[in-house]
Amino acid sequence: MRKSHYIPVTADVPGASNEKTCALVRKAIKTALRMEGVTLPCEVDVLLTGDTGIRKINMEQRKVPTPTDVLSFPEFDFTPGEPPTAETAGDLLDFTGLLPLGDMVVSMERVAAQAKEYGHSNRRELAYLAVHSTLHLLGYDHLDEGPMKVQMRAREEEIMKELGLER
User: Fold this and answer.
1) Cα–Cα dist 26/117, whole Å
2) Cα–Cα dist 87/52, whole Å
3) Residue 17 · residue 34 · CB < 8 Å
4) Residues of the chain above pLDDT 70, percent
5) For residue 1, what are the contacts with CB-CB under 8 A and spacing of at least 6?
6) C-alpha span between 67 and 58 (Å, rounded)
7) pLDDT digits (tens, 9 = 90+) for 108-141
8) pLDDT over threshold 80, residue 11
9) What is the CA radius of gyration of the chain?
10) I need a surface site. Which of 106, 141, 142, 143 has the fewest CB within 10 A?
11) Distance (Å, rounded) from C-alpha 161 to C-alpha 28?
């Protein structure tokens, strides 16, 4: 039985699989999980790709023929701000004792373009997208301009501040 999170990071674009990049993604995800009160060991599978790769996945999974910055594929439908616990998620744990939260796919081309557009580092943008996606895996959404989006943005900013990567 595992006691820590399992976050495999794979890349299909040159340069994205270096240890510093993978370590940053893992740290952002682990920080988001901790700050959301998730104490169960979780699995989050991460793919770092380019615009071509994310466009293909976006079309296959969502029927949207364009690239995007990040895609999140939650395994379960959680309520934002109510982390899974041993009591509520006991039967959701897989045979390794991990809670499979889901998958995230990040376009490293979008990371670079958005970092430039927003005037901050690629490091901050990548961490932000990993935090953003982790919150989606935990049930947060932002499809409307209402209270859910406000709640999600507030959590993102708190987590980014904890990472020392605030705006």
Assistant:
1) 24
2) 41
3) no
4) 97
5) 96, 97
6) 7
7) 999 999 999 999 999 999 999 999 999 999 999 8
8) yes
9) 15
10) 143
11) 11
167 near 120, Cβ under 8 Å? yes
Residue 25's identity, in one-letter code, is V
Calpha distance 5→9 (Å, rounded): 13
Taking the C-alpha atoms of residue 146 and residue 43, their distance in angstroms, rounded to an integer, is 30
Mean per-residue pLDDT over the chain, rounded: 92
Region 35-48: mean pLDDT is 95
Q: What is the mean pLDDT of residues 144-162?
A: 89
User: pTM here?
Assistant: 0.94
Closest CA to 10 of 72, 18, 2: 18
Residues 6+ apart with CB under 8 A from 125: 111, 112, 114, 115, 118
Helix, strand, coil % over all residues of the chain, rounded to 5: 45, 15, 35
- In this predicted structure, the answer to whether residue 87 has a pLDDT above a threshold of 90 is no
